[in-house]
Amino acid sequence: MNETLVSCTALTKRYGNKTALKGVNLELGRGRIVGLLGPNGSGKTTLIKILCGLLQPTEGAVLVDGQAVGPYTKSIISYLPDRMYFADWMKATDLFDLFADFYKDFDRTRAMSMCASLGVTPSDRLKSMSKGTKEKVQLVLVMARKAQLYLLDEPIAGVDPAARDFILSTILTNYNEEGTVLISTHLISDIEKVLDEAVFLKEGEITLHDTVDNIREREGKSVDALFREVFRAHNIEGGAF
Amino acid sequence: MDWQFTDDRPIWQQLTDQLTLRILKGEYPPGERLPGVRELAAQAGVNPNTMQRAMAQLEADGLAVGSRTAGRTVTQDISVIESAARERARAAVSACLKILEELGYSGEDALVFVKEELHHE
User: What ipTM was assigned to the predicted interfaces of this complex?
Assistant: First the structure.
């Protein structure tokens, strides 16, 4: 098993004449929780979708566990999309059946116990659930797999602060120890203390990739404070709205 | 007791400080088994790797003994705990003196303040 789990080389993605990612080089090790941090439109979702094979890069290469993106990498990646993609007549238990069919590493017992601790009734239909509860169901589906790479796209955006803490502790206590978790968000102060590393993405380019401890030690401020500084400076240069 | 973090320093250092304080106060008495890294990490809501680093520092300071696999206990060596407590006390006094100095008071003044404060109580 090689040490590097994810490796992106000179990754570029263009949508027409708009460039979403510009020559991104990124290496991620195993057993880490990594924050993918950037404002709206910085390319976070594009990068995640390329990693899980939903988008093809315009240029560059991606390897996950030493393999090009394909059926094997999909079997070891657990992906939480930024929006719900299930039919609303389904119950959470229907989704568990579906996931158990699709993924060998899905642990149904664990999914049920996570539902109990998150206060979700698995026999309810999705359409009767609130937005926050649906997000919890999605999180249960994703975290109940014993995957090597968890890609979580904005997992805490739609829930209240109390549920946020609960979701973060669910992530902390349920991820596979050899697995790596990549969390994209712009709500940094909430997740900073669970992260090993932070990756700053600015207009499709990685401007910083370091451990949270190093950043705090070097800058004497939190990653959140640094983020606000880095991304605010740009707005002022950009002039008036 | 809750875990509190400030923005200016690495989180593992703050964890080490707070764990040390618990040992010095006797919340984790000498010779007692400390909770596991994962359990403590879940309590504090931090990454287990961060907690691991904080515990390694406690070991380096001599306050915790044992291994990751067998579990750690608080040291039985009271002298280590006592000297760590004295170090904490000195740090608190020097921080206090620094504030008084900024306000323009001398060391002598500081002693007077301390005596007055003790009388009040």
Answer: 0.73
Edge to edge, the sheet with strand A4-15 lists A18-29, A4-15, A59-64, A67-68
Whether residue B3 lies inside any domain: the answer is no
A221: closest chain B residue by CA:
B8
* Residue B94: inside a domain: yes
Confirm whether B1 is domain-assigned: no
Which of A193, A221, A222 is facing B45, going by the closest CB pair?
A: A193
One domain for residues B39 and B52: yes
- Cβ distance B41 to A193 less than 8 Å, yes or no, reads no
DSSP bridge partners of A212: none
**Cβ–Cβ < 8 Å for B73, B33:** yes
Residues B36 and B22 in one domain: yes
pLDDT by 10s per residue, chain A, length 241:
568 999 999 999 999 999 999 999 999 999 899 999 998 889 999 999 999 999 999 999 999 999 999 999 999 999 999 888 888 899 999 999 999 999 999 999 999 998 998 889 999 999 999 888 888 899 899 999 999 999 999 887 777 777 788 778 878 877 777 889 999 988 888 888 899 999 999 999 999 999 999 999 999 899 999 998 888 765 555 445 4
Six-digit token string for B43: 């309590």
Closest alpha carbon within chain B to A214: B10
Domain span at B107: 79-120
Give the mutation candidate from B7, B18, B52 for the A interface (greatest A CB count, under 10 A). B7
* Strands ordered across the beta sheet of A33-37: A77-80, A149-153, A180-185, A33-37, A197-202, A205-211
Q: Which H or E run contains A79?
A: strand A77-80
Burial A21-43 (b: 16+ CB within 10 A, else e): bbebebebebbbbbbbbbbeebb
- Token output for A119: 């206060």
Instruction: Indicate the residue type of A91.
Output: K
Hunting for tokens 């570029």 — which residue is that? A12
